[in-house]
Every structure is written in C-alpha cells, then in structure tokens.
Amino acid sequence: MKIGPLEETDRERWETLARGYKEFYRTEVPDEGYERTWRRLRRAEDVFGCAARLDSGRMVGFAHYLFHANPWAARSCYLQDLFVAETERGRGVGRGLIEYVAQVARDHGAARLHWLTQQDNERARLLYDKVAVARGFISYDRFLD
Fold first, then answer.
1. Cα angle vertex 143, ends 138, 145, to 5°?
2. Angle (nearest 5°) at CA 6 between 100 and 19
3. How many Cβ atoms from other residues are within 10 Å of residue 77's Cβ?
4. 22-47 burial by CB neighbour count: b if 16+ within 10 A, else e?
5. What predicted TM-score, i.e. pTM, was given to this entire model?
6. CATH class assigned to 2-131
7. pLDDT along the chain (145 residues), means of 10
8. Of 6, 11, 36, 124, which residue is the least packed, with the fewest Cβ within 10 Å?
9. What value does the CA radius of gyration of the chain take, rounded to a whole number of Å?
10. Which residues, other chains included, contact 6 with Cβ-Cβ below 8 Å and sequence gap of 6+?
C-alpha cells in the first residue's frame, strides 16, 4: 500500500468513496458539492487530501485534513474525514492514513493532530484508541445560514 496526495486520476474513485463516507454519516451532499470539494482538495490551499492505494494503484481510502490556528500551540491539524473501503478495513489502511497525515502535520509545524468520530463508530474507535487519546469532549454543532 502507498499513501500520498490526491492525484487528478483519483477523481472518480474518490467520489465513489466520498459518497460511501457521506452515506455512512447519513449526510446528503448534492452532486455539485462533490465537484466543489474535489476542486478545493486539488488546489490544496485550505483543505488537503491524501489517498491510500494498493500496489495495483487502486485507491482504497482517503483522508481530508486542514490546518488551523491554536492559541495554545503553534498550529494544529484537524483530520476532517477518514474513510476506507469496506473490503479493505482491518488491513492497516486507516492507520496508514492517520500516520501519513500526522507526518504532514509535523512537517508543517503542527503540535497536535485531532479528529472526531461518532460515539457508536465502534470499529473505527478500536483503531483510534490505539493511535490517539480520547479526552472525553462532547461535540456541538450550530449550523449557520
């Protein structure tokens, strides 16, 4: 498996996986939302993406991340999205994506990599509990028009 930045040739497979990710979290995104997000990821100015590929070159997972200011540290990196094709779960793809983003974050001077997941996402939490510390925070969202 190889992990690296998203490439133009990943577009179709990325959308297939992204739709699976959004379906998992029961979030609807219009078709143009996928195109808009893809363009932002490819520009790599404010949000970034990476892909996990098998030796065959087939993309089997992705991560999206961004950097943000932090009053208490130089910089932080937020792992916004992480998704692995169901057929590839349990094979180290998720861990590889997290480690890749962690290294990119270190290279960019971030002091911390953090992310959220749903409380009942037990399968993912088995991995997350091995590679990070759950600090007991509860997330709130206030949607703005």
1. 170
2. 100
3. 24
4. beeeeeeeeeeebeebbeebbeeeeb
5. 0.94
6. alpha beta
7. 96 97 94 97 97 95 97 93 95 97 97 94 94 91 88
8. 36
9. 15
10. 14, 41, 42, 49, 50, 51, 62
